[in-house]
Amino acid sequence: MDCLFCKIAAGEIPSSKVYEDEVCLAFADIDPQAPTHFLVIPKAHIGSVAEINAENAGLAGHLLQIAAQVAREQGLESYRVVSNTGAQAGQSVPHLHFHVLGGRDMTWPPG
Ligand code: 5GP
Ligand code: ZN
After folding, report:
1. What digits encode the pLDDT tens for the residues 5-29?
2. Is 89 touching ligand 1 by the criterion CB < 6 Å?
3. 5 CA → ligand 1 middle, Å
4. Is the CB of 82 under 6 A from ligand 1?
5. Cα-Cα-Cα-Cα dihedral of 34, 7, 45, 93, to 10°?
6. Is 93 in the pocket of ligand 1 (CB under 6 A)?
7. Which of 43, 71, 70 is nearest to 59 (CA)?
C-alpha cells in the first residue's frame, strides 16, 4: 500500500524515532506544533480512530500506553493527545496516529 506511515514503520522513509517495539513506533513530527511533538503509530495499517474495533482495540490501547510512557520519558507532566479523524477534522495522513503535544500552554476548544 502506498502509505507514508506504513513506509516510515517499515524504515523505508527515515524518521527520528523515540520508541519502537514489534507493533508500534513513536517518532518526532516533521512539523512540530509544540516544543515536544511526537506521533505514535501502529506498524500495521489502520486508517484512523474510525477503524478501531474489537479486534484491534488492544493495539489501540497499547499506542496510548506508549504515548504516556514516552511523554513521561520526555519529562512532560501535561500534554495533549490528539487523533484527527477524517479530512474535516484535519487528518492529512490516512494511517492511525496519536499526536502527543506538550511543553507550551494549550487553548480549548481546538480550532
Ligand atoms: P494529521 O494531519 O493527519 O493529523 O497528522 C499528520 C502529521 O504527520 C502532521 O503533523 C505532519 O507534520 C506529520 N508528517 C507528515 N509527513 C511526515 C514525515 O514524512 N515525517 C514525519 N516525521 N512526520 C510527518
Ligand atoms: Zn499505513
Report:
1. 999 999 999 999 999 999 999 999 9
2. no
3. 9
4. no
5. 40
6. yes
7. 43
| Distance set, CA 66 to CA 19, 23, 88 (Å) | 8, 11, 27
Q: How many CA atoms lie less than 13 Å away from 36 in the CB half-sphere?
A: 21
- pLDDT digit string (tens) for 58-107? 999 999 999 999 999 999 999 999 999 999 999 999 999 999 999 999 99
Closest C-alpha among 27, 21, 33 to residue 5 = 27
Centre of ligand 1 from the C-alpha of residue 28, in Å: 9
Whole-number Å distance, alpha carbon 107 to ligand 2 midpoint, is: 30
Q: Structure pTM?
A: 0.98
